[in-house]
Amino acid sequence: MKGLLVGLALGAILFGPAAAQEGAPDSTAQLLEHAHGLYERLDVERALPLLRRVLSPDWAFPVATAQRVDAYSYLAACLVLLGQGDSAAVYFRAALENDPFTGLDPRRFTPGQLAAFQAARRLTFAVAARPVNVVRVDPRTERLTFTIVTTHAATVQVEVRSADAAVHRELYHGESDGLREIPWDGLAAEGRLVPPGRYELVVDGRSRLLGRSDSAHVYFDVRHQLPALEDTLPDLRPRQLLPEHYPPSAATGDLAKGLGLAAGVALLAVLADRRLGSGDAELPAAVAATATVSGVIAFVWRRRHRDVPENGPANTRRRQERHDANEATRRRNAERIAQTVLLITPASGLGP
Fold first, then answer.
1. CA distance 146 to 153
2. N or C terminus of the chain with fewer C-beta within 10 Å?
């Protein structure tokens, strides 16, 4: 135990001051915070190695893009203060290439640093677009705003495209220098509301100073939010309508009824004659003949007059009532669709 205590004491003597000076950082954020503190105290000679450690391939901790850009920017700013303008330009350009939205706060950096940064912007061409946030947009009164940037003057074209290329609309085509906000009303080129799905914001730019081109892509999803729609009624089926024509069997049926009645009367007459012995068959015969003639007449008339005149208008009225009900439903649905709100969310992955 005594030997351990001696070793710890010796370690504190040998390494304690250095660890205290460097803050013993165990993450990228802590190291950058320590470097910022040294920079603010104008201790740039000690800030430089910390910033270079963050950018070193041997650095053991994760480095986010924003942290890398921060390290490039402060490293360049330190080099400007040391009079190493050419080296500073290299790191300023690296910061811009990683994030074209990079800028320097005039309250924290000197005019010389700002001038060096602006010179780096003129030597570097890059375009970018900020990712979209979750937002609800009413196309009737609101607009979704895309924010793009170019590192210097350029000609840019900004388009919205659907993943299946069915929707394609140009939002802007012209000159841009620095930040620019591009509004979008959620409509396709032909003026209709874009359907739900995945979309891509494409920014193509060409430098007016260097003749170089660059592009940026941002993916987002569109969903529709609207009141529930009503279903229209299906067309009336034949069994739901009254018959407008007698079937061919109806005439045969009438004839069969007449003949059946005649046969029945004849049979009753025969039975009555046998039981009563009256011998008077004129009346039954007349009734049977009348039934037979009626059946024949009904058969002929039905064959020539198959329509059921009263059922046609009734069916027309039923169809019109169904049509009117569906038209009213369609009007109500159209009013609800007109209230559609777009829900915009960042795409869950890269690309379509």
1. 19
2. N
